[in-house]
Amino acid sequence: MSDRVLLLxxxxxxxxxGGLARHVRKLAEALVHQGxxxxxxxxxxGPESEIDPVGPEMRGGVSVHRVREPGWPRDLDRFVAWVExxxxxxxxxxxxxxxxxxxxxxxxHDWLVAQASGTLADRLDVPYITTIHAxxxxxxQGWVADLPQSHIHAVERRMAHRADAVIVCSYYMxxxxxxxxxxxxxxxxxxxxxxxxxxxxxxxxLQALRREFAAPEEKLVLLVGRLVYEKGFQLALDALPGVIDxxxxxxxxxxxxxxxxxxxxxxxxxxxxxxxGTFLGWIGDDVLHSLYRIADLCVVPSIYEPFGLVxxxxxxxxCPCIVADTxxxxxxxxxxxRVGLRFNGGDAEHLGVMxxxxxxxxxxxxxxxxxxxxxxxxFDWDDIALRTRGIYERFRQLAPREGARGG
Length: 407
Known about the structure:
Helix 9 (about 260-270) links the parallel strand 10 (about 250-255) and strand 11 (about 275-280). The chain has helices spanning about 20-35, 75-100, 115-125, 135-140, 150-160, 170-180, 205-215, 235-245, 260-270, 285-295, 310-315, 330, 350-360, 360-375, 380-395, and strands at about 5-10, 35-45, 55-60, 60-65, 105-110, 130, 165-170, 190, 220-225, 250-255, 275-280, 295-300, 320-325, 340-345. By secondary structure, the protein is an alpha/beta fold. Helices cover about 45% and strands about 15% of the residues. Helix 1 packs across helix 15, helix 2 runs parallel beside helix 3 and helix 8 (about 235-245) packs across helix 13 (about 350-360). The chain has an 8-stranded mixed β-sheet with strand order 3-4-2-1-5-6-7-8, with helices on both faces. It folds into 2 domains: about 5-195 and about 380-395, Glycogen Phosphorylase B (Rossmann fold, 3-Layer(aba) Sandwich); about 200-375, Rossmann fold (3-Layer(aba) Sandwich), CATH 3.40.50.
């Protein structure tokens, strides 16, 4: 397949809100390497940005087109209206692009671009593929009856039913999406997220960085991600006082920001942990890659987790992992394979036992690191792009070959 596809995403580097931006970039670049021409339609870097002020950006062989970004609100009620405005801008920009190029299909990522993606596919008379990276139902443990969660859930449901094919990142998500949106599992393809170990290189003096957070005799526990309830960081904080009592010299790092940040800091204060760790806030990738290298272990205690990219990145960086036995984490750290430890999801006491076990057993830690270094090679972006191309090819054959509007 040497045709042109249009990918829509609300974030794309250097605009990064989370893992979605990295996923779409690596997928787009890997598709280009396999001979597909890829245009990405995303949002701009600042409030004055407009579509193609001086032409598209070329990033890794991908043609990146951006729409303006008015300052976006953190309040979720107003955020929904902001998303609708962004979709209107993306639709107009996509129609303008379609006057210049003929697209074989439209591939949208998550509900944030669902309206523009589906409408563009309709108007261009081409297949519409959607990747569902997470659901509002999962993020809120099923509590989606009230606004704005009910609106987002409804958008996701329409998106899942409208799309010609749905892609998810784990077998857990396939069952979850089929169940909550009442669609046939056979319409849902499982293609995992990937990791590129060559991009996880640390920078600077690692020994000096470690000295900032821990003394030589101390163990360092790392928590990484958006500070939201479903990521389960409150469970890790609950587990740490007992670990410190039993093991002794243990410190923790929390890297990330989010709506749950103030509650987590207050919880740490209540538990007497303030003198044992640091909340770093949001950090860039260069610092994150270095933190993986200096930590003694990384804990991923999610309550809801479609995949578990942090665990994959940590393992690829040589940092042993403890993950919750939930969601897609079960596939990133499979049972029976000595690549990481799992604890009973939601059980802070069991998590504490697992943390203690890994901190005091150097031989176990070394064995996990060795096995994980091979395991992560399964999550290769070239393979992921090849599997995505398979979806494209299947639906391309069903689409009209001539007369698509706008091309």
